[in-house]
From TrEMBL:
<feature type="compositionally biased region" description="Low complexity">
    <location>
        <begin position="139"/>
        <end position="163"/>
    </location>
</feature>
<feature type="region of interest" description="Disordered">
    <location>
        <begin position="117"/>
        <end position="174"/>
    </location>
</feature>
<dbReference type="Pfam" id="PF24201">
    <property type="entry name" value="DUF7426"/>
</dbReference>
<feature type="compositionally biased region" description="Basic residues">
    <location>
        <begin position="164"/>
        <end position="174"/>
    </location>
</feature>
<feature type="compositionally biased region" description="Low complexity">
    <location>
        <begin position="120"/>
        <end position="131"/>
    </location>
</feature>
<dbReference type="InterPro" id="IPR055849">
    <property type="entry name" value="DUF7426"/>
</dbReference>
<feature type="domain" description="DUF7426">
    <location>
        <begin position="5"/>
        <end position="134"/>
    </location>
</feature>
<protein>
    <recommendedName>
        <fullName>DUF7426 domain-containing protein</fullName>
    </recommendedName>
</protein>
């Protein structure tokens, strides 16, 4: 029997552009994946509602590093990325490995999108070039303070997959 080239089905690395640099995060090992899944549970349900058996797993978290970032954690720290952004990168990577990129993107938009939008609105004379979804605007922004009645509220399909964008249920804990 010939060998099967499984590379086409292997989980790809996560590439993160941050501070003008691309950080490559490898998928977690089996041991790290256990911690990543426990972190995802705690993130989604909140610490107070996390089952005791999951909290026991989280007791094994390393004092330095992050299981979802692996070796890349040290590279990010050495690059001088601020602690808040580092924490967000850890949450994002956790959600990518636990639930998939579409879910992680949707959660990031729910959690950090309003902060980004507020910062863009506060910038003097500078309108954001991104919509609330994080996509670049294709037309100038309207002067209207209210949404139009023609705006669709249905999920949009992604161009690459033709499937609806996955969305997290409710607003996750920060």
């Amino acid at each position: 029997m010939s060998a099967v080239d499984f590379a086409a089905w292997a989980r790809p690395n996560l590439e993160l552009l941050l501070g003008g640099r691309t950080f490559v995060v490898r998928p977690p090992s089996v041991a790290q994946a256990r911690l990543v899944l426990a972190l995802a549970v705690r993130f989604e349900v909140g610490e107070e509602r996390t089952p005791p058996e999951v909290m026991e797993i989280l007791d094994g978290l390393p004092d330095d590093g992050h299981p979802a970032l692996g070796e890349t954690y040290t590279e990010i720290v050495e690059a001088g990325i601020d602690p808040v952004t580092l924490s967000r990168v850890g949450v994002y990577a956790t959600l990518v490995w636990a639930r998939g990129r579409e879910y992680a993107d949707a959660a990031a938009e729910i959690i950090w999108g309003p902060e980004r939008d507020a910062a863009a609105a506060d910038a003097p004379g500078k309108a954001s070039s991104r919509s609330r979804s994080g996509r670049r605007r294709t037309s100038p922004t309207s002067g209207s303070a209210t949404p139009t009645t023609t705006t669709s509220t249905a999920s949009r399909s992604t161009a690459s997959t033709g499937r609806s964008r996955a969305k997290p249920k409710g607003k996750p804990s920060r």
